[in-house]
Each structure stands twice: as structure tokens, then as C-alpha cells.
UniProtKB/TrEMBL annotation:
Membrane topology note: Multi-pass membrane protein
Compartmental location: Cell membrane
Transmembrane segments annotated in the record for this chain: 39-56, 113-136, 143-165, 171-190, 211-228, 234-257, 266-285
Region (Disordered): 1-33
GO biological process, one term: cellular response to sulfur starvation
Family: Belongs to the binding-protein-dependent transport system permease family.
Xref: SUPFAM superfamilies: MetI-like (SSF161098)
Top-rank taxon, per record: Bacteria
Name assigned to this protein: ABC transporter permease
Domain ABC transmembrane type-1: 106-285
Amino acid sequence: MSSTHATAPRAAAPERPPAQGERRRTPAKSRRRAGLRRAALHLTSFSVLMLIWWAVTSAGLVRPLYLPGPGAVWEAFVRANTDHPITEGSDRMVRGAQNHYLWEHLLASLRRIAIGVGLAIAIGIPAGLLMATTWLGTLLEPYLHFLRSLPPLAYIGLLMVWFGIGDTSKIWLLLLAAFPPIAMATISGVRSVKEDQVNAVRSLGASRRQALTSVVLPATLPEVLTGIRVATGFAWTTVVAAEIANGIPGIGGLAYLSGQKLQSPLVIACIIVIGVAAILIDLGLKSLEKVLVPWRGKA
């Protein structure tokens, strides 16, 4: 007669919790790997784009007047940043393009954009706060939407009549392009603040001004920063229109005059410089946003 002995199941050994150092290193490694993947993807896409561009222009599929090759664009970029003979074999030297180096054109446009966007920030944030918290919103908000819907070219001629063809009209144009997104972002941010939060602070004895500075403004800041980024992008798209008349020095004015003279390589060089500068500024604003509102996107 045989007997069977029931074996009690063994309890599974508890998993060892990761060490403190491992918990700290894992997110950092993940971020580094994600950053490397993004960089590799960007580099690959850029290389493929350059290869296609070179192949199309080298095969003569498009006339150089319409699409010059990368080499011609690079040569135009170098000439625009150096002194060179006015004609081949001439002893007379020319300074850059339109008697200014390309980086000087870029700095002139950046100065106009900085002043225009800076004024839009200084006016748009207080105006947005007033329209979101007082009866002025009912009165003025329709005009704000009207201004936002107008393309800059619609009133550039009028601004030239009012202020001339100098920098004043250009800065006004950039201000009018950047003001609506900043004001509307401020209005949206204020209106997204929960009334219970304000009432809770007021019930603790805070004044209206203290509630504004301690609750409303911090809650509005993420929307305002997004509005500033959008406004800066609008300013970049407007700078060429702003510099059509008497826009030298200016990267937009240089691109416009080069197009008038059928200097396609220099036009594309200006476009690339504008795009790279806009991307770098946007990355800087994103970094500033992470510093000022680190809690955004973590809830």
C-alpha cells in the first residue's frame, strides 16, 4: 500500500526592490537614450533631405534659377559674410551683401523682433488681465479677434503712411502681429483659473491684489509663455513683410531684394538662416518655460 505525501507549495521569493542608485539612474538613462534617438532621427532626416536636394540639382531636373544646388547656396552664404570683389578680377571689394554682412542683417531683424514682441508683452499681458477680469472684455474682445484675423500685409501700407518707411512702421507691424496671441493667451489663462481657488485665498484674508499675484498670475503663466512663443513665431513670419521697404540692414529685406535681383542662392541662404534662428529662439523659450513652470505637463 502506497501513501502519497502532499507537498506544501513554496511561497515565491519576494522580488528584490531596486537599489536607490538604480531608481535614480533609470529615468536619466531613458532620457539620454530618447535624446540620442531624437538626435539620430533629426540627423538622418536632414542627411536624406540634403541628398535629395543635391541629386535633383546635380541631375539638372530643376533649373538653377528655381532651385540652386547646396554648393551654390553655401557659396552665397560665405560671400554674404565676407569681403569679395565686386566683379571677378576687380580690385574693388564689396562688404558682404548690400554693404552689410549676413549676421548684421540677422541682428538688425532680431532687434526689430525683440522690440516688437517686447512691446506686445508689455501691452498684451496687462490688457489680457483687464479683459479677463473686468467689463472691458465684453467691449474689446471682438476687436481683438478682428485684429488677429488681419494679415500683416493688409495694413503695412497704412503704417508706412502714418510712420514712414523707417523702423517705426516696422516695429508697429511686428507689435500688431505679436499682440493678439499674447493677449488672448492671457485671457484664456485667467479664465481657466478655478474660482474656488481664488475664494479659498480670499477667505483666508487675502486681498484682491494678493489673490491676483499668488493664485491667478502663477496659474496664468503657462498660457502666457505659450502665447509668447506663438507671438514670436508670428513676428518671424511678419519680418519679411515688415522689411519690404527700406529693410536694409535686415534679413527679410535682404531676402526680398535678392529675390528681386533673381539671386536665388542668396534667397535660400536667407531662408535657412531665418529658419535656424527661429528654431533656436523657440528652443530657448521652451527651456525658459521649463524653468519658470516646471510643474507643467507633470500633473
